[in-house]
Design brief:
The complex is a heterodimer of chains A (337) and B (409). Chain A has helices at 6-20, 44-48, 60-72, 91-97, 101-104, 134-138, 151-163, 229-240, 257-267, 282-294, 317-320, 324-336; strands spanning 2-3, 24-28, 53-55, 76-80, 114-119, 144-146, 168-173, 199-200, 213-216, 221-225, 244-248, 251-253, 270-277, 303-307. Chain A is an alpha/beta fold and 337 residues long. Helices cover 35% and strands 8% of the residues of chain B. Chain B is globular. Classes of the chains: A alpha/beta (337), B alpha/beta (409).
Chain lengths: 337, 409
């Protein structure tokens, strides 16, 4: 075991896979020589060569399409899109191509592409470096959508993503790269050093896509979330002394309905939380499915925590980010209802 | 696993950290050599200009050749002043960012002529679709420095209400469109705007800027095909400053010779110019503007320059290029070159230059003091919090009204 932050853990996953499978390649804008603007691919070009980890021109559609072509030829490409906010020029290649190759060729062609991309706010990135666009991608049949919340999961899930024969959009909550974040921007930065999930094996391991984790057991309310908000939910429950059960989804498609339903059937109360704008967000899918599965167990309406239906503001970032206050308000409302 | 020869071609720059900066591979044609064709020239006949380099200031800082715009000394001094102001402003803002006064900053050091000379050659009514390194345009158009700073420190007087990252200026009164963090999106928009100018029978034209790295985006090609198909009155500038964050220009250029050359395939008038030469930038922009206004169509201009500083305050170039590479740039420093040109004309001297720098430094310091009196990002006051719900639509719908209530603002 080694102490790793999320950047190092992701780097370690890529390192293991480049070592293990000669068909794995990694590329993206600034992702080759320099090792990425967040340094996730640092050192890989030096170690594995120019054609295993390389810089791509600034064209997200072309980057994703190149990955598709490589994947069809039997490679396992890992494409980095520098910020999730920049993925949209590549959307056609994801929606109309990547996701459907297996289906429309009746399995004659497949392409096991992984697209890594940093997402989310909390770094003063303004509207073009803060988005959480995961819900868009959950609307695309044929792609899996993953978002880890800590270094240990990040490594194990990235390895699974690369090894998966189906395409994966792998979201990396950038606010968590260097440490957990409980939603209080006034506090000194925490590192992963003392966090149990900052203990990461240096060797290859994988975690199953589609499996959620109960990260805090409780009886009074279930909080279903993923990414950065997992840590905010934990902090809010601690601070309020509420007996909340908190589920880190880790995978959005396919999400782990079994773990969710088991929890909600136990607690009878449910909060779903996302950083993305509220309307048609992933929380809406969760709420709909949970009420189908657990309607008779629910004692109160499912409560949604979300970003506002506005672009991500720069100066008022913390008025946008669903922080501690919105979690504690939600828990009180749900418990008092 | 050990490193072996790559199985497909991956381009690499001539020098990396630890290497001696080396620009010996760059061919610099003599100043004054390029011909200046009539503005109604067929785009396909500009191949020599797309592959060459329009230069006016020679190594003695004298203006030579057909492209010399023959500007009055007053205009040259004005240009110098805007360029010095841009540099002084950038230096001060970087320091303030390091002191935590703003979240982010991007300097334009080494690229001042690209912005300032172009802005001065255009009419102030012409529409600018900028990228994030053309603050010089704002100075040339006379934007209030305090206003610019208030935007950068996201305070209560930020005309963008704190919604945009610093340096992502918008200035409607100055015909300066919004800067997007997403690359190249403005390029085809500028073509659409230019077509609308024609539609409305106006003489206004549009000009847009991107970096050479951004020319790899699909929107670059979209802009060129639109500009060519509709013969739009637009100037499409590619600022080739050699570096797209850590990625050298060869990754976007590929096997082509120049970025200007990419315009030839679309039949556009295509110029490659010395971007560190105030007079060359001025003359090329003036030529392209005249061509556009006369209905002869669009021009693509590659400004060959060098990003003398980091991409942004989030970047550290020591990780990917040799130290002090900017000092070896064969086309020198744009401010120094215009200054020496003016001195050579007997229209400027070191004392006046020092006095100008001092005056502009004081102006920038005083401006910041005033800007800070309207608040800072960390200590406020900011735009009122409820303004985050405004301008999403003309009127907030029930969702936004309810969310504003939920936030309690």
């Amino acid at each position: 075991m080694a102490k790793m932050n999320m950047i190092q853990a992701l780097n370690s996953a890529l390192d293991n896979m480049l070592e293990k499978d000669p068909n794995v390649v990694s590329f993206g804008e600034d992702a080759g020589y320099f090792g990425g603007v967040f340094r996730v691919t640092a050192g890989l070009q030096e170690k594995y060569g120019l054609d295993r980890s390389f810089d791509a021109p600034i064209n997200e559609a072309a980057i994703i399409a190149m990955a598709i072509g490589m994947g069809v030829k039997g490679m396992r490409p890992v494409a980095e899109i520098q910020f999730a906010d920049y993925i949209f020029p590549g959307l056609d290649q994801i929606v109309s191509e990547l996701s459907r190759i297996r289906y429309r060729t009746a399995g004659q062609f497949t392409t096991p592409v992984t697209i890594r991309t940093p997402c989310g706010g909390g770094i003063r990135g303004g509207q073009t470096h803060s988005m959480s666009p995961e819900a868009f991608f959950t609307q695309i049949p044929g792609v899996q959508v993953v978002m880890p919340s800590n270094p240990y999961d990040a490594k194990g899930l990235l390895i699974s993503a690369i090894e998966s024969d189906d395409p994966v959009i792998f979201f990396e909550p950038k606010r968590l790269y260097n440490g957990p974040f409980d939603g209080d921007p006034g506090k000194a930065l925490e590192t992963w050093g003392k966090h149990p999930k900052g203990e990461v094996p240096e060797e290859h391991y994988s975690l199953p896509i589609g499996k959620a984790e109960v990260v805090r057991e409780g009886n009074d309310v279930s909080i279903i979330t993923y990414g950065t908000l997992v840590h905010v939910a934990l902090a809010a429950a601690e601070r309020e002394g509420i007996d909340a059960e908190i589920i880190d989804l880790k995978t959005l498609v396919p999400y782990d309905i079994e773990t969710i339903a088991k929890s909600v059937n136990k607690t009878g109360r449910c909060i779903v939380a996302q950083e993305a704008p509220r309307t048609s967000g992933f929380g809406a899918e969760l709420a709909a499915q949970i009420q189908e599965e657990c309607f008779y167990a629910l004692e109160t309406p499912i409560y949604r925590i979300a970003g506002w239906d506005t672009p991500y503001p720069h100066a008022h970032e913390w008025a946008y980010f669903p922080g501690l206050t919105r979690f504690t308000t939600a828990m009180r409302e749900v418990l008092e209802a | 696993m050990t490193q072996s020869d790559p199985r497909f071609h991956v381009p690499a720059p001539h020098a990396r950290p630890g290497d001696t900066p080396d620009f010996s591979h760059i061919e610099i044609p003599p100043a004054g050599e390029a011909r200046k064709p009539a503005v109604d020239i067929d785009g396909s006949e500009t191949r020599d200009l797309a592959l060459g380099l329009v230069r006016v200031l020679d190594h003695n800082h004298q203006a030579v050749g057909e492209w010399d715009p023959k500007l009055d000394a007053d205009v040259l001094r004005e240009g110098l002043k805007h360029m010095v102001l841009t540099r002084v402003y950038d230096d001060r803002m970087l320091k303030l960012q390091r002191q935590g006064k703003m979240s982010f900053y991007m300097k334009s050091t080494g690229e001042e002529a690209v912005a300032v000379a172009a802005a001065m050659a255009l009419d102030n009514t012409d529409m600018i679709f900028p990228s994030y390194r053309q603050q010089g345009i704002l100075f040339a158009r006379g934007r209030d420095i305090v206003d610019m700073m208030c935007h950068c420190i996201s305070n209560s007087r930020d005309n963008l209400k704190g919604r945009q990252l610093p340096v992502h200026y918008t200035w409607a009164e100055g015909n300066f469109f919004s800067i997007s963090g997403n690359l190249t999106t403005q390029f085809p928009q500028a073509v659409g705007y230019a077509m609308a100018c024609q539609f409305k029978g106006e003489k206004q034209i549009a000009a847009s800027w991107i970096g050479e790295g951004s020319s790899a985006e699909g929107d670059f090609h979209g802009a060129l095909v639109l500009a060519s198909t509709y013969k739009a009155p637009v100037i499409l500038n590619v600022v080739n400053n050699q570096w797209a964050i850590s990625t050298f220009q060869g990754v976007a250029r590929g096997q082509g010779n120049t970025f200007a050359e990419k315009g030839l395939g679309y039949g556009l008038a295509s110029l490659r110019i010395d971007g560190n030469d105030f007079l060359a930038v001025y003359a090329a922009t003036q030529w392209a503007a005249e061509r556009a206004r006369a209905g002869h169509g669009a021009t693509i201009i590659e400004s060959f320059t060098y990003r003398a500083d980091a991409h942004s305050t989030s970047d550290d170039p020591s990780g990917y290029r040799p130290k002090a590479e900017e000092e070896k740039w064969p086309l020198g420093d744009p401010v120094e070159r215009l200054k020496q040109h003016l001195i050579g004309l007997g229209e400027w001297d070191e004392e006046r230059h020092e006095a100008l720098e001092k005056e502009l430094n004081e102006l920038v310091i005083a401006s910041y003091k005033e800007a800070e009196s309207h608040g800072t990002l960390h200590d406020g006051p900011l735009s009122p919090t409820h303004t985050i719900f405004e301008d999403v639509y003309v009127e907030p719908d029930w969702r936004l009204r309810r969310q504003r209530q939920d936030l309690g603002v």
